[in-house]
Amino acid sequence: KQEVTQIPAALSVPEGENLVLNCSFTDSAIYNLQWFRQDPGKGLTSLLLIQSSQREQTSGRLNASLDKSSGRSTLYIAASQPGDSATYLCAVNDYKLSFGAGTTVTVRA
Amino acid sequence: KAGVTQTPRYLIKTRGQQVTLSCSPISGHRSVSWYQQTPGQGLQFLFEYFSETQRNKGNFPGRFSGRQFSNSRSEMNVSTLELGDSALYLCASSLEGSNEKLFFGSGTQLSVL
């Protein structure tokens, strides 16, 4: 059974600092990995999708890397802003999605 | 382009009742998947439908069921509600399946009293 772990569970940083969010998974036989953002009481917004054959994906200030062999992915958010405050979840797809518990990020103005 | 629409937004039921939740995917999307989110268990996959057929199923009891219609709209049903079924139920759609970017609705918050 796929286990997905996200560390840390919560993070508070001053505006402008770079964010590093970690995701690890136990079974490397995956199709892809997605990073999502969730605002309180809302659904999820897909940020980046990395296929198993890719090493990284970038979108604006966001960059996600994938090391399938070691079962790790990292989401980097450059120059954080208060609007980046949210819970970030990673999800691993090995025929069905398995989610981590998320990292709740607070960016202080 | 309209997003994924889930109705109702909030629902209050009592133990033993049944409930039906609805999800309208983005136009053109044929895959709809359902998830349960609780503070204790996090987000868990319920099932996925594609072209009116269940393609995948998570580890939930048979009280949880779903279906998909020819217009790709999907419903999920929970029978004989238990207190532990209180959760945010989310659906997501994509063109072909979970190998692609998923678009989520805002969810239905179900409270079982």
Folded structure, characterized:
The complex is a heterodimer of chains A (109) and B (113). Chain A has 109 residues and is mostly beta strands. Helix content of chain A is 0%, strand content 59%. Chain A has no helices and 11 strands. In chain A, strand 6 (56-59) and strand 7 (62-67) form a beta hairpin. The model of chain A has no long low-confidence stretch (mean pLDDT 95). With 113 residues, chain B is mostly beta strands. Chain B contains no helices and 11 strands. The A-B interface holds A 31-32, 34, 36, 41-46, 49, 51, 89, 91, 93, 95-102 and B 4, 33, 35, 42-45, 48, 56, 58, 88, 90, 92, 98-107, 109.
Task: Supply the number of helical segments of chain A.
Answer: 0
Name the shape of chain B in a single word.
globular
* Helical residues, percent of chain A: under 10%
- Count the strands of chain B? 11
Global outline of chain A = globular
β-strand percent of chain A reads over 45%
The separation of the N and C termini of chain B measures 37 Å
- Decide which structural class fits the backbone of chain A: mainly beta
**Mind describing the biggest β-sheet of chain B?**
7 strands, mixed
Distance, first to last CA of chain A: 41 Å
Order of helical and strand elements of chain A: EEEEEEEEEEE
Provide key terms for this protein.
heterodimer; A: 109 residues; mainly beta; 6-stranded mixed β-sheet; 5-stranded antiparallel β-sheet; 0% helix; globular; B: 113 residues; 4-stranded antiparallel β-sheet
In short:
The complex is a heterodimer of chains A (109) and B (113). Helices cover 0% and strands 59% of the residues of chain A. With 109 residues, chain A is an all-beta fold.
